[in-house]
Amino acid sequence: MTLENGRRWNHNIHYHSRILRAVPDGAQRALDVGCGEGMLARELRRTVPHVTGIDLDAPSIDQALKYPDDVDYVLGDFLTHPFEPASFDVIASVATLHHMDAAAGLARMRDLLRPGGVLAIVGLARSAMPDDLPRDLAGVVVGTFHRVAKGHWKHPSPTVWPPPVTYPQMRTLAAEMLPGSRYRRHLLLRYSIIWRKPQG
């Protein structure tokens, strides 16, 4: 955990480490989808020479541009921005996929990733009741302990609630669109997907 993240905590930041651990060795180009004010993009830049962050929210991009880093920030729609296909070694997305059609978002990420590259997602989904109730209650309890111990940083980006896709639906979608991906449901009301694009 870096000093910057050590001063901030929320449910999304808690899982940044899963994204950072997934960065493949030798990655040269990274894309942070829904970068917000750029915290994860700056973290990626510590190990990846060329990092691009894209977000639709102008105030968030304005905040990101205030940091003295060399991340390329783009104000625009990830689904339509003219990125070159298969041009990124790693694509990261935290709490962004539920802001768009999930299938369209996954397809776009898949197309922009080079063969051998890694897609790393941390997302929110809608609980399927009553099956998810025990896990959700446990997550609220654990999240409360974290808030008490670390405080809670409220990100400046817009929110979408409730997420349109449930956790089971997200797992199914990932399996269908990203064969061989690793889907995991996390305690603090998040899921992660890690996928390496096949060579050839």
TrEMBL record:
GO terms for biological process: methylation. InterPro entries: Diverse_substrate_MTase, Methyltransf_11, SAM-dependent_MTases_sf. Residues 31-121 form the Methyltransferase type domain. CDD domains: AdoMet_MTases. It comes from Nonomuraea muscovyensis. Keywords: Methyltransferase, Transferase. It holds the Pfam family Methyltransf_11. Belongs to the methyltransferase superfamily. It comes from the Bacteria. This is SAM-dependent methyltransferase. GO terms for molecular function: S-adenosylmethionine-dependent methyltransferase activity.
